[in-house]
Design a protein that fits this description.
alpha/beta, seven-stranded mixed sheet, 9 helices, 7 strands
């Protein structure tokens, strides 16, 4: 059932973010559509591989919404056709190897899409298949026509040295892309969100940057939580019983 929420989720990760996302791109599209979100941005780790499946699922939803007769008998029995999510934004989550904070990157046009693909190709060519090594210099070179949202890790924000490093990175990126840069606020629900948000709001005010909200979801529904816990434990190299 649609909730009529005027909210666009820009930080969704799918199972194309290896050992991070726990849902297929199609499932993210279905969940966003069912919630009535204004938009969905797929941003997998150093990859745009999942956006094709998400786009294809949106086309299927749109066809069945416009032409209800295209639905199966089972789908018709389940209720009215699901309205597709309002806007789909393909992009990537840029994860760097030089201390630069994660950045959600969404092309504005065809040129931006080409730049994003070139940026990711540069990182892929530096290492073996399945890995990607990116540096801030890559973004400086190929970041034109791309909307950028800095998504720092919460623990680093609260450390003096980490905040100073973040401040320096934001300054460099803003100098290069003054009109296409945001700072993302994402809750961790660990009791420190208000303090983290206050620090990031201070940083945004200092550099005259807008804030943008994202939940950075890793899966489409609560039934996928156990799988998400498992891949997190594998990624961190610890047993689930000791993960906390």
């Amino acid at each position: 059932m649609s909730t009529g929420i005027a909210y666009c989720e820009i930080g969704a990760r799918t199972n194309f973010s290896f050992l991070e996302g726990a849902s297929h791109p199609e499932e993210m599209v279905m969940a966003a559509s069912a919630l009535g979100l204004a938009g969905l941005g797929i941003a997998d780790r150093n990859s745009v591989a999942g956006v094709v499946r998400a786009w294809r699922q949106l086309k299927v939803l749109d066809e069945k919404y416009r032409n209800p007769d295209a639905r199966t008998e089972k789908e018709k029995a389940e209720g009215p056709p699901l309205k597709p999510v309002g806007q789909f934004q393909p992009g990537a989550r840029l994860v760097f190897s030089d201390g630069t904070p994660d950045i959600l990157a969404f092309p504005q046009d065809r040129r931006g899409w080409g730049n994003l693909c070139r940026l990711l190709s540069a990182g892929n060519l530096r290492t073996e298949k399945g890995s990607c090594i990116l540096y801030l210099s890559d973004l400086i070179e190929w970041g034109d026509s791309i909307m950028l949202a800095v998504a720092p890790h919460a623990p680093a924000v609260l450390e003096t040295s980490g905040f100073e490093e973040l401040d320096d990175h934001v300054r460099q990126i803003r100098e290069r892309f003054p009109k296409t840069l945001w700072i993302a606020l994402s809750p961790a629900y660990d009791g420190r969100d208000a303090l983290v948000f206050a620090h990031l709001a201070q940083l945004a005010d200092k550099h005259r940057l807008p804030l943008i909200a994202t939940n950075q979801p890793l899966y489409h529904g609560p039934t996928r939580r156990p799988l998400s816990d498992i891949v997190t434990a594998i990624r961190d190299g610890i047993p689930i019983a000791k993960a906390g």
